[in-house]
Amino acid sequence: MSIKQEALDQLPAPTMNFTDLLASFRAKGLGVADLVWLSGAHTIGISHCNSFSERLYNFTGRSVPGDAGPSLDAEYAANLRRTNCTTRTDNTTVVEMDPGSFLTFDLSYYHGLLKYQGLFQSDAALITDEAARADVESVAKGPPEVFFQVFARSMMRMGMIEVKTGGDGEIRRHCAVVNN
After folding, report:
1. Which helix (H) or strand (E) holds 83?
2. pTM
3. Is 106 flagged in the annotation as binding?
């Protein structure tokens, strides 16, 4: 039976630094390139403010307004505080993970990272490591088709992690219900 928390425990936290991100990926047999390419999935979707509010309001632990982290563009952070996440404890408002392009699978996530507009600390962490930053810069400068190919390869590698076989798992007839 699937338990939500067990699934969440397998995902990297949005607050992770590069060292912790890479360790979590290596524990699954993935490397730096996979980390960079799979993070590109953040080009699609939304997040609740409480997943990144520490970056906006309490980066240094002083709990003062405007205490944003240095890896977050000041204008972008101010806009998020003003228009979306107006309080540190907001857990209902959602924000586009890739502003202006959150419904399109494209390269704008990587362009945003290079402008210090990664929403999560884990996004910003990608440009703190030399090899990862080189990969981010390379994909941002390249044609979208290259990203699509390397993303697909990393997704296939991720899809092969801890696959259950035989009697260890089941293919559900309805994903929300355990088979009888």
Report:
1. helix 74-83
2. 0.87
3. yes
